[in-house]
Amino acid sequence: MLETDRLLLRPFTLDDAPRVFELASVPEVAATSLNIPHPYPESLAADWIGKHPAEAKKGMHVLAITRKTDSLLLGGISLGITHRHHRAELGYWLGLPYWNQGYATEAVRRMIAWGFTEHKLNRIFAQHFACNPASGRVMQKAGMTFEGVLRDCIQKDGVYHDTPMYSILRAEWVNSSP
């Protein structure tokens, strides 16, 4: 488990499946995430959570973003580690009621710190749909640097999307950490 001032990042449990379904079923959430379909099948949340232990053994660490004050599940965050290259791809999503409240930035900063301190990574990168500039602002606030746009990089629902790419290097993180 990872903590911030307001959040606890913890492994998902099957008890979280109804809440994941509730949050992920909103069209606006699906529109900003590559791996959340719309409509969101009710069984998908439990199936997804059930795969996490096996995926963690392969380097894909997925955590629930929960609020400390009431343990409410707000969304999810992941770090997919490629150990050979000491790098990881960061991903995250939040339920619509929790957008624009600083939760994503807080969770991203903590996950970046975890990647550099616990996994000795050299590089953490992330990308977002160009139609979701708020996600790019989260990455910037977390200290990531804009690297460029991958044109028509991702296909979702039969449509190709540009994805702006951001990254942070271990040396940059060390130099910016208080």
Automatic annotation (TrEMBL):
A Pfam family annotated for this chain is Acetyltransf_3
- Looking at the record, the residues that make up the N-acetyltransferase domain are 7-166
What domain of life does the native source organism fall in? Bacteria
Alphabetized UniProt keyword annotations: Acyltransferase, Transferase
One example GO MF annotation: acyltransferase activity, transferring groups other than amino-acyl groups
What is the similarity comment for this entry?
Belongs to the acetyltransferase family. RimJ subfamily.
Annotated protein name in UniProt: RimJ/RimL family protein N-acetyltransferase
Species of origin? Armatimonas rosea
